[in-house]
Write a structure and sequence with these properties.
With about 80 residues, this protein is mostly beta strands. It contains one helix and six strands. The protein has one domain.
Length: about 80
C-alpha cells in the first residue's frame, strides 16, 4: 500500500478571482499492488474540505474506493441494439 499526501501548493488552488471557494483540509490516495503480478487491486481516494458559499461554510468529506479484479479473464460483452 502506498499513500500520497496533499501538497501545500494544492491546498490554495480553490479560489475564484481572489475569493476562496473552499479550504482543502486533507487529501489522500492509497493504492494496493499485488505482490507477484504488480497489478493494482484497490484504490482509495479521500478528501476533506470546507466549502464557503456566500459566507455559509459547509464541511464535506468524500471517500471513494475502487476494487480491480479479474485481470486477463475472458468476458463477453453484448452491445445494445
Amino acid at each position: 500500500m502506498t499513500r500520497l499526501k496533499l501538497s501545500p501548493i494544492f491546498r490554495n488552488m480553490f479560489d475564484f478571482h481572489g475569493y476562496k471557494l473552499c479550504d482543502v483540509i486533507d487529501f489522500s490516495i492509497e493504492y494496493w499492488i499485488e505482490k507477484d503480478t504488480y497489478w493494482l487491486t484497490k484504490i482509495e481516494n479521500k478528501i476533506e474540505l470546507e466549502m464557503n458559499i456566500q459566507g455559509l461554510v459547509t464541511p464535506i468529506k468524500l471517500n471513494n474506493s475502487v476494487k480491480l479484479y479479474d485481470y486477463n479473464k475472458e468476458m463477453e460483452i453484448e452491445a445494445p441494439i
